[in-house]
Amino acid sequence: YFFTGSRDKLILVWNISEVEFTVPEAYLPLESRHTCPEAVTALDIIGLTGKWDYLMAVGLESGQLQLFLLHPTRSDQTPAVARVVWSQPILFNPELCHVKNKRVRRVQFEPIIQSDQQLLSSAADDGFVKIFSINIGQLQNAVLRS
C-alpha cells in the first residue's frame, strides 16, 4: 500500500500490489479514505505486528499531531481489493504539539522497531523539532478498549 495526505484534508490508501494489474487499475485509490479536520501536511507510517498492521502519524496545518492504527482486510467476493479499517484518531495533548497554527512540515518514525517503544519526530513552522516516545502495546490496548 501507498498512503498520501493532502491539503484537501484527505488521506488516501493506494493499492500498489504485487499482483499483475494494468496501470490504471494498479494506481486507483482504495475506498478506504479518511477525512481529517484540516489540511494534512505530513504523514509517516510503520508496520506493526498484532491486530493492527500499521501505525500512521499525521501532522496537520494547525500544528496538531494525530496517530491512527490501520488494518487492511479483504472480502471473499473481491480478494484482490482491500479495505482499510481505521482506528479513531489518537490525539496528542495540544500542549505537547507545535505552536498553534504553525504547520507541521515533517513527521517520521525511527526507521527500525526494536521494542514496544517507538520514537516519532516532528518538525513544524514554529522552528522546533519534537521527539515523542510511543508505547505501541499500550496504544493498541487503549484502542481495543475504546
Folded structure, characterized:
The protein has 146 residues and is mainly beta. It has a single domain, classed as Methylamine Dehydrogenase, Chain H. It contains two helices and eleven strands, in the order E-E-H-E-E-E-E-E-E-E-E-E-H. It has helices spanning 23-26, 136-145; strands at residues 2-5, 10-14, 34-35, 40-47, 54-60, 65-74, 82-86, 90-91, 104-109, 117-124, 129-135. Strands 4, 5, 6, 7 and 8 form a five-stranded antiparallel sheet that branches. Strand 6 (65-74) and strand 7 (82-86) form a beta hairpin. The radius of gyration is 16 Å and the shape is globular. The mean pLDDT is 84.
State the gist of this model.
This protein has 2 helices and 11 strands; from the N terminus they run E-E-H-E-E-E-E-E-E-E-E-E-H.
Defining key terms:
146 residues, mainly beta, 3-stranded antiparallel sheet, single chain, Methylamine Dehydrogenase, Chain H, 2 helices, 11 strands, 5-stranded antiparallel sheet
* Proportion of beta-strand residues: 35-45%
Q: Care to count the β-strands?
A: 11
What is the fold-level CATH name, i.e. the topology? Methylamine Dehydrogenase, Chain H
**Poorly predicted ranges:** none
The CATH class, by name, is: Mainly Beta
Task: Write down the overall geometry.
Answer: globular
Taking all residues together, what is the mean pLDDT? 84
Helical residues, percent: under 10%
Organism: Fasciolopsis buskii
Pathway: tRNA modification; 5-methoxycarbonylmethyl-2-thiouridine-tRNA biosynthesis
Keywords: Cytoplasm, Nucleus, Repeat, tRNA processing, WD repeat
Main location: cytoplasm
